[in-house]
Design a protein that fits this description.
Blueprint lengths: L1 H6 L2 H13 L9 H8 L15 H8 L5 H24 L8 H10 L4 H4 L11 E2 L14 E11 L4 E10 L4 E6 L6 E3 L2 H4 L13 H11 L5 E4 L2 H8 L1 E2 L3 E3 L5 E2 L10 H9 L12 H16 L6 E2 L6 H6 L1 E8 L16 E5 L9 E7 L3 H10 L3 E4 L5 E8 L5 E8 L30 H74 L1
Helix pairs in contact: 2-4, 5-15, 11-12
């Protein structure tokens, strides 16, 4: 990050400093104004506008941040800005008459969430593969596509590891279908979601590096990579590929904000007319990859638009048949959750997003109907509390097979509960901090808001640049008009001089004629 700060343009440094002010962030010399009072004895905080400060002052301030959380936030903002610059450069390579495929790549790259979701540590970690852009002309850019989907397990160190990957081409022909040895100790195979168990991997020798090599060949020639919430798959594959189409970005609900991403299952029901899976069923890597490719092909053939209607189904009935289990220690395998709650149900673990970190996870207990879910909740013995939104929940303690006890929270689903409507493997995270006031922001909330603010600032800067260019054009036009007016004035003066001269000649001629008489 120091290298970026040292070479960054002033307008970028100014915006980062303003964002730190807005968030009340403090370095080892205090906040922005406190820093100025220490750093600049002459002017101090009397000149607090970052835009009127030199690069040296702005850089010195940003280097005062040494807390890990602050550095993570600043690094994310820096990476976000770097991503925007890379995207701008990539978009310049697109031909003027874009193909439908290239147009969808553009839609993905220009989505407000792209810089945040696709901020990978690819240039910092050696085990990442970065696909290189070819030197092809705009007229020869590839329109070839392959779709990918992955399944991941939760490891004991809190990270996720790839265990299965499937790739299909535009004809839905399978190009890759492999189980992968995670080479780590696994805390939870998430069999209810992944469909993969420990026994499935007993004789598997295929490694992540082998998968990376095979995918690199498939992506040669700037092939477009397709997927749903593709950033999660790329994170698991440790591959940074720029030319992507994310089906979670190119469609949006007619009644929701742009940041609300439709699930793959809902997209398939709305667009393709079928369900990828039934509630509670495990994922099928191959089916998901094919579904993502079918969605893109339908979009290319102009069969559908950007806006999709809300899925017509009894969402409330489905949601109310669930109980939410959250703040589960990652050391507790999902199979053990059946010891926590009575009844007949299946467990669906909510996989965290790319940005989610920590030592907790969440899951759904899915019953046959809402009545069974209610009965199970009532039978659970625990301390009654309320979550951050004021909804009743219970803190329960139960015994694991190892003989030790552990705690988790369980609550019923509300009829307007948004977390239950996104229970696919790439679901949005449920707020885990049950004891935190809902106005209090987590580090991730702050980070996302900072990136969103930076995104808006970048957009404002672009708009200012555009207005400046328009103003320059108007000024040039005005200059041309002024020159033309000056020219006309000079012509008028010349005419007036000519008329004056002619008048003198006429007067002289008339005077001479009178004397002759």
């Amino acid at each position: 990050m120091d290298a970026f700060i040292a070479t960054a343009e002033k307008k970028v440094l100014v915006e980062i400093v303003k964002l730190s002010q807005k968030r009340g962030m403090k370095g080892n010399k205090g906040d922005w104004k406190q820093f100025l009072n220490i750093y600049d004895k002459k002017f101090g905080a009397s000149l607090s506008d970052p835009g009127k400060r030199s690069n040296d002052v702005l850089t010195a301030y940003l280097k005062t941040f040494d807390k890990e959380d602050d550095l993570k936030v600043l690094a994310k903002v820096v990476q976000c800005h770097s991503n925007r610059q890379a995207v701008d450069q990539l978009l310049k390579t697109f031909p003027e008459n874009e193909s439908p495929e290239q147009s969808l790549v553009r839609s993905t790259l220009e989505h407000p969430q792209y810089p945040l979701d696709y901020s990978f540590p690819s240039h910092e970690q050696q085990d990442w593969v970065v696909s290189k852009h070819g030197k092809k002309s705009k007229a020869t850019i590839s329109n070839g596509m392959v779709a990918v989907d992955c399944e991941m397990v939760l490891c004991e160190d809190g990270s996720e590891a790839l265990v299965k990957v499937c790739v299909v081409d535009e004809n839905l022909q399978v190009k890759l279908d492999e189980l992968v040895n995670p080479r780590k100790k696994v805390a939870d195979y998430r069999t209810e979601i992944t469909g993969v168990s420990a026994s499935d991997l007993d004789r598997v020798t295929c490694t992540l590096s082998e998968i990376q090599k095979r995918l690199k060949k498939l992506l040669s020639g700037e092939t477009i990579l397709v997927g749903h919430s593709l950033c999660n798959d790329l994170q698991a594959l440790k591959i940074d590929h720029a030319r992507v189409i994310d089906t979670a970005y190119i469609f949006k609900y007619s009644d929701g904000p742009i940041f609300r991403k439709p699930s793959l299952n809902n997209l398939c029901k709305s667009v393709l007319g079928y369900e990828v899976r039934k509630p509670g069923s495990p994922h099928n890597c191959l089916d998901d990859a094919c579904a993502a490719m079918k969605l893109v092909l339908a979009k290319i053939k102009r069969e559908i638009g950007d806006i999709i209607p809300p899925v017509q189904e009894d969402v409330r009935e489905v949601n109310m048949a669930k109980l939410l289990l959250h703040r589960i220690p990652i050391t507790v395998p999902s199979e053990e959750l059946h010891n926590a709650i009575p009844g007949n149900y299946t467990i669906e673990v909510k996989q965290p997003s790319v940005k989610a970190q920590g030592d907790k996870y969440s899951a759904f207990a899915i019953f046959k109907n809402p009545q069974e879910a209610d009965q199970a909740y009532e039978k659970v013995q625990g301390n009654k509390e309320k979550d951050s939104s004021g909804r009743p929940q219970k803190l329960i303690s139960f015994k694991l097979s190892k003989g030790v006890f552990t705690d988790l929270y369980v609550r019923k689903m509300a009829q307007d509960d948004s977390c239950a409507q996104v229970s696919s493997k790439r679901a949005l995270e449920v707020e885990e901090n049950s004891g935190v006031h809902k106005k209090q922001k987590t580090d991730q909330n702050i980070e996302e808001e900072m990136v969103a603010d930076l995104s808006q600032c970048c957009d404002h800067l672009k708009e200012i640049e555009r207005l400046k260019q328009e103003q320059q054009k108007v000024s040039e036009q005005c200059c041309d008009h002024l020159k033309e007016i000056e020219g006309l004035k000079q012509q008028l003066k010349n005419k007036e001089f000519e008329i004056s001269t002619l008048n003198k000649i006429v007067s002289k001629y008339r005077g001479g004629k009178k004397k002759g008489k």
